[in-house]
Known about the structure:
This protein is mostly helical. It has helices spanning 2-6, 11-20, 26-50, 56-83, 87-105, 119-139, 143-154, 159-183, 190-211, 216-239.
Amino acid sequence: VVTGLAGLSAAVVITPVLVSLCGWESYDAVTVALASDVLASMLSAYTYYKNKNIDLRRGGLVTVTAFLGTIAGSYCGFLFSRHSPDGLGYISMLTTVFLGVKFLVKPITGASAAAEQSGRKTVLAMLLGCGIGWVCGFTGSGGGILMLTVFTLVLGYNLKVAVGTSTMIMTLVALTGAVSHISLGARIFPLPMAIVVLSCLLGAVVSAKFVNRCEIARLNRIVGIVLVLLGIVTIAVKLL
C-alpha cells in the first residue's frame, strides 16, 4: 500500500515485521523486502505511466547510477550484517518511524518549483541517485522517499510524476539488490517469500489506482500514521 500511495520501498514495512515479529535475521528479511519491491514497484509504475506521470528520459539516467550504488550498498550491508546480525533490522525500524514522522510534520505536497530541464540538475540527480541506490542496497528501505525528495526539490516534479518516476527506478534497484543479496548468501524461504510478494503486489496495485483520487494532505496523514505506529510496535516487540 505504501509503495502505491507514496512510492516508498515495501521494506519500510516488511523488514521490521519479519525481524521483530517473525524472528528473521536482518539480511534475509531485507532480501525478501527487496524481492517484494520488484513486482509491486513495477505495476505501480505502470499505473502511473498510463496516466502520463513518469519522466522516462531523466528517470532512466538516474536509474543507471542508482543501479551501480545498489550493488555497492548490498555488499556493504552483507559485511555489516556479519558483524551485527540485528543491526539492519533496528536501522529499518528506526527508518520507518522517521519516515512516518516526516510525512506528518513535513508532508510532501508537490514540487518546489517548475520542472527544469537543466543539465546540471540532471547530473546532480544522477549523483544523488547513486547514493540512494547505496542506501537501498544497504538497508533495503528509504530509497522511495529519498527519490521523491530528489525529484521534487532538485528537478521540480509535481508529486504524482515524482512518485511515478520513483517507482519505476525502484523496480530495477530492488531487483538488483535482491539478486546481490542472494548471490552473497542470503537464505531464501520460498513459501513466506511468495506470500509477502503477492500481498505486496495486491496492495500496490489497488493503492496506486486510489492515489489519483485522494487528497494530498489526507494521503500524507494516512501514510505517516501507519508508518509511525508500525515502527513503534515492531521496536517494542523486538526489545521485549
